[in-house]
Design a protein that fits this description.
This protein is of the alpha/beta class and 302 residues long. The protein has 2 domains: 15-177, NAD(P)-binding Rossmann-like Domain (Rossmann fold, 3-Layer(aba) Sandwich), CATH 3.40.50; 189-301, no CATH class. Helices cover 50% and strands 12% of the residues. The protein has helices spanning 22-31, 46-55, 64-70, 80-89, 111-115, 135-138, 155-166, 179-189, 191-206, 214-231, 234-237, 241-244, 247-257, 261-274, 283-294, 298-301; strands at 15-18, 39-42, 59-61, 73-76, 97-100, 119-125, 146-150, 170-173. The protein has an 8-stranded mixed beta sheet with strand order 3-2-1-4-5-6-7-8, with helices on both faces. Helix 1 (22-31) links the parallel strand 1 and strand 2. Helix 9 packs across helix 10. The longest helix is centred in the last third of the chain and has 18 residues, at 214-231. It is elongated and about 70 Å long. Bound molecules: NADP nicotinamide-adenine-dinucleotide phosphate (NAP). NADP nicotinamide-adenine-dinucleotide phosphate binds at residues 18-24, 43-45, 48, 64, 77-80, 82, 86, 100-102, 124-125, 128-129.
Length: 302
């Protein structure tokens, strides 16, 4: 009978990270609390891992092969499309754990690791780790968030303990979850907010205002709306002309946006989406808003 070697708990497992990018750097910085074991980090080329090791005490730079050789628990913090290829290129062994951080990928992306006897897992922080933020600051982004988790026992227990160590507030099991839809929800909540910020800046500049002033002026609105969605149901979180039923204001917006059909269509489509909420308007007022927002653009009318 073959028995698996005992798996060390999260705070004593030797941890490695391949991929010193946005999330890999933040994770490394978050895991090297004083008194904890060092974290070994590798990249495609040595430069990024070495730079991270210089910035964060407790991070050691190595090659991907050295990470696999030295570490019990290895995070593959590379772009989703590189996970399977990287997993296939490394020499895994029984008793080791390979963990990716992608919301969209299942554990099948780590098939080569499991075929070599390692356990496969996924730990997906529902958080945005932008580039350009110092890793020590990015490390704080784990606090209070939810992390998606998929892993067999006993790796699931190890990853839950690790999530707790990172300050994660809750863990969401992803077994039997449609990962593409789950990840699309995350992208709508995060990346597409950036698209809205870009669109808003475009309208701001068209109004004749200085585009560089747009972000500081508009970001508090964006932040307040995001915070309101966390505290109130959507219909209560919503403010502005749609919530009030100010159809003339909305008509003015649409008319002004006729100059940029893509922007107008984005505005119209998102507003139309909000009409699905119970905003408490009288039936005639709701019908009027619907008619305005179903109206084709000036270009289509021609
Ligand atoms: N950033 C986020 O907000 C976020 C949030 C949740 C989950 N995730 C997940 O985290 C993972 C990493 O995302 P990221 O945003 O951190 O990506 P990223 O900033 O682009 O970093 C990827 C890192 O992987 C390295 N790399 C690429 N191919 C490699 C290979 N074959 N071998 C070794 N290193 C390689 C890159 O090095 P080079 O510089 O040499 O290309 C870079 O250091 C993805 O699965 C993503 O879905 C990210």
């Amino acid at each position: 009978m073959t028995t698996e070697p005992p798996r060390p708990p999260a705070d004593t497992a030797s941890i490695g990270i391949v991929g010193p990018g946005r999330l890999g750097s933040a994770l490394a910085a978050a895991l090297v609390a004083p008194g904890s074991a060092p974290v070994t980090v590798a990249g495609r080329s040595p430069a990024a891992a070495e730079a991270l090791a210089l910035r964060i005490a407790g991070v050691h730079a190595a090659t991907p092969a050295e990470v696999i050789e030295r570490c019990d628990l290895v995070f593959l913090a590379v772009p989703d499309g590189a996970v399977a290829g990287l997993a296939a290129s490394l020499s895994w062994r029984a008793g080791q754990s390979a963990v990716h951080l992608s919301g969209a990928l299942g554990l099948d992306a780590l098939r080569d690791a499991t075929e070599a006897g390692a356990l496969a897992g996924c730990l997906h922080p529902l958080q945005s780790f932008p580039s350009g933020e110092p890793p020590a600051e990015a490390a704080r982004r784990f606090a209070g968030i939810t992390c998606g988790l998929e892993a067999p026992a006993p790796l699931d227990v190890t990853l839950e303990a690790l999530a707790t160590r990172l300050g994660v507030a809750s863990v969401l099991r992803l077994e039997r979850v449609d990962r593409a839809l789950y990840h699309a929800a995350a992208v709508l909540s995060s990346n597409h907010v950036v698209a809205l910020s870009v669109a808003a800046t475009q309208a701001w500049a068209l109004a004749g205002l200085d585009a560089t002033a747009a972000r500081p002026a508009l970001a508090p609105l964006l932040r307040a709306a995001a915070e309101a969605t966390a505290s109130f149901p959507p219909a209560e979180a919503l403010t502005g002309p749609l919530a009030r039923g100010d159809h003339e204001t909305i008509e003015r917006h649409l008319h002004a946006l006729d100059a940029v059909p893509e922007l107008r269509e984005l505005y119209r489509r998102l507003s139309r989406e909000l009409l699905a909420l119970d905003l408490g308007h009288a039936p005639e007022a709701a019908e009027r808003l619907r008619a305005i927002l179903d109206e084709p653009s000036a270009q289509k009318r021609l």
